[in-house]
Amino acid sequence: MSTGKHVAYVLPVYNEADGIETFHKELVAATTARPDLRFEFVYINDGSRDGSIEHLLAMREQDPRVTVLSFARNFGHQIAVTAGLDHAHEAGADAVVIMDTDLQDPPAVSLEMVERWESGADVVYAQRRTRKDTFFKKATAGAFYYLLDRMAETHIPQNVGDFRLIDKRALDVVVKYREHNRFLRGIVANIGFRQEALLFDRDARFAGESKYPLSKMIRLAADGILGFSTFPLKAISRVGITISVLSVLAGLYAIAVRLFFPAHAVAGWAFLGVGMFFLGGIQLIMIGVIGSYVGRTYVEVLNRPLYSLALVAHGEHRQGSE
């Protein structure tokens, strides 16, 4: 076994039984180019229901560098990555590479990240130059990054997912962030340090289907915006001021018509009815925005554990039991 620096791969898995072994073979093939490094492959089974855990345990029997963490239920992609980061931090990894296991993130690119890290970068994030996704996925992703760039108080690079390398000293800071509604790419952007972009071409999914349907994409977008921006709260005040100014102007107009042009005065019941429902809708939206922030605060105050593990099978870097 190499006595070089310890590089841990954090690999979340959810219903990837059809392609997980193919992914591992390609990852192993890519990492053989660096025999001077000690690699650990940390797979986090996020409550899969398709037999992924059996494949992972079989891989561990064949490759002692494989560590398997299995959740007691599905906690979501961001929490799965967090569990992997926690493990890598406890294991004393010198660097961590986060990547998905559907082969959209090419394993060879991770070795380019390692080279950037060895040249002095603390964080190397993979920025998509091209991506083989549907038009709808590209359009919604573009809209999300545009809104996030306009609203977020922390600059978060566009066309960047969770595929990245994090140095040990940056990881020391990342694991201190324990919020439940997590947006990891925002957290990593927020910590600072020397961060570099690595352009790459994202491949098509090897097998299975996307684990981010529209509902999860919207939830992730909400976590990104609400977790790193107070713009929605500020917008409420701006909308309220705008409506108040328009109401004053409308009132002055109505008074002027009544005083100077009484013959043109019209009893505007329809206008009042539409205005009432419009303002009611605006108020409900504002209450919903405030409620989103209050709800996030409530969840954090409860301070419940981020995840629960049903199984831990350590690789060769740590001693443990299944």
Automatic annotation (TrEMBL):
Keyword Acetylation found: no
InterPro entries: Glyco_trans_2-like, Glycosyltransferase_2, Nucleotide-diphossugar_trans
GO molecular function, one term: glycosyltransferase activity
GO cellular component: plasma membrane
Keywords: Glycosyltransferase, Membrane, Transferase, Transmembrane, Transmembrane helix
Residue ranges constituting the Glycosyltransferase 2-like domain according to the UniProt record: 10-172
UniProt topology in membrane: Multi-pass membrane protein
TM annotation in the entry: 239-261, 267-294
CDD domains for the chain: DPM1_like_bac
Localization of this protein: Membrane
UniProt record similarity statement: Belongs to the glycosyltransferase 2 family.
Official protein name in the record: Dolichol-phosphate mannosyltransferase
Organism encoding this protein: Nocardioides baekrokdamisoli
Species lineage: Bacteria, Bacillati, Actinomycetota, Actinomycetes, Propionibacteriales
